[in-house]
């Protein structure tokens, strides 16, 4: 009996270990594909940024188009934004049965909203815009780093990424209670994208923020960025739900996002940030950055920074011959050359900063007298992109330094190794080690950091000797059963208490018999979904894989050793996966240890063609580039109408042609756009946009 018990125990442990290994491999697949997609987004944005930085608009019309393409939120001043998003002129019809809001908001309004969203009702556009308007007014009064104390409430609850999953937010409120004077919340960014109810989450959070401004705190995440929203679904969601007023709502949301605080400090001891830190993170700088200037954190403002450097060179009396092209790109600006005093050395930054401020103020005053501008218009003349005139004794940081501070806290991830290095996996931010964490904690007298940004299987995870806590609140993020969500509660002792959950309707309806085998069935279901996504990635890179396999097939037999298969696949996909371990799920084993790679790739093509009735070579291109094509489409569609107008296409093509040195006449561009407009309605929709690539591929 004893030997039998030991044998059963060994079998059970081996079985559990295999299940855990399958779970970890599945997780690696999901995470690697997700991060590779983020890399593509940043590469695509860097490409457009390069075009922007190296394109000199030939007219004010082109300059306005380029401005709308990437910095659309900045093009509206306060009065213009209110006029554009004029909610007061909108009438709510008597037939509207959804919730109604009146300001100032009361707890009953929040309760009504929650009930309405549970019933799948939609808030009228007038109330959405009014809510965004009031939220923006409130956020503008907040500092970059919000300070929270456990003295005023029993505990503070910190929630991580929600990503448009409203059921998770409902479950958090059900388990933990609604925000109230005795129940404080910190929501740590990434409220939107990926999920289908991002806008509802924003409405709920903003409502509670206005009702309980001292108890509800919101941090900005890397997805609170309009360039990221173009790719990951939030912009599309808004336009689908509000076809008439969707553009106004998106415009207001963009402006609200850039006013979100960057961090929260609990009892001066726990720093809550979305992504992480770097070896250059400076909380003093973060507190003084004009955060609203960074509509999209992905774009580093290279054009403005180059112009600023030219101005500083002029102030120091240096030659600007080499900076001529950058100077030509710049918009007309004030001449800031001093008339008498010699500029101090840049080595003494504090002295130089004071001198610059004094000089700028003198020049503004001189220009005001020349054109007879009144004192009331002083704010419009402040040269804020060059230096801040508010704090005379503070050093002036470059725009690039400020941008990097924000990029690092929104995009970075911890790593077990010492040091700090560029985050090449995501394509943005950095990896920071335990030594970097220790220095930051010691410098600012902190106990530990709370961050989000990474999906964790259990909903939370400690690292760096329990000095960094990752909290993730979107359960079933990759697939039903892929991960739990969690939130953490901190009392006056600042000891974290975790609550895990899974907003899984499927699990709730299982019988007792089904529940006994649920973990195995769930892992199989999640595993199947992961390998399906991985096979799509393999199929999307068919041409590159064939070339990689041929490097091992010197005699052109169409066969390669299975031992070389993993090396070839990783050289193409760069996902960092354990391919040898995954091989049995992807490749049939053969007696001679060889793989007929062409027939294997044909099998992948057949699997995808069963879902899409398109020729495999074209389908490969679409699978590989669909996300990029959709993002490009939304970038060109600057007014978020869901259609590319002839003018938008015309301006974009001129941008591409100048980069690629292709000469095309105005008539040629007009002929091209008319050929893509298949239904001749004067616009290009997304299907026509994709069809154009299909026709080009077929002709090739």
Automatic annotation (TrEMBL):
It comes from Mesitornis unicolor (brown roatelo). The keyword Nucleotide-binding does not apply. Keywords: Calcium, Hydrolase, Manganese, Metal-binding, Protein phosphatase, Repeat, Sensory transduction, Vision. This is Serine/threonine-protein phosphatase. GO terms for molecular function: calcium ion binding; Hsp90 protein binding; iron ion binding; manganese ion binding; protein serine/threonine phosphatase activity. Its EC number is 3.1.3.16. May play a role in phototransduction. May dephosphorylate photoactivated rhodopsin. May function as a calcium sensing regulator of ionic currents, energy production or synaptic transmission. The keyword Hydrolase applies. It catalyses: O-phospho-L-threonyl-[protein] + H2O = L-threonyl-[protein] + phosphate; O-phospho-L-seryl-[protein] + H2O = L-seryl-[protein] + phosphate. It is an enzyme of class 3 (hydrolase). Residues 309-340 are annotated as: Disordered. One of its GO terms (biological process) is detection of stimulus involved in sensory perception. Its cofactor is Mn(2+). Belongs to the PPP phosphatase family. Residues 540-575, 624-659, 664-699 form the EF-hand domain. InterPro entries: Calcineurin-like_PHP, EF-hand-dom_pair, EF_Hand_1_Ca_BS, EF_hand_dom, Metallo-depent_PP-like, PPP_dom, PPP_phosphatase, Ser/Thr-Pase_EF-hand_contain. SUPFAM superfamilies: EF-hand, Metallo-dependent phosphatases.
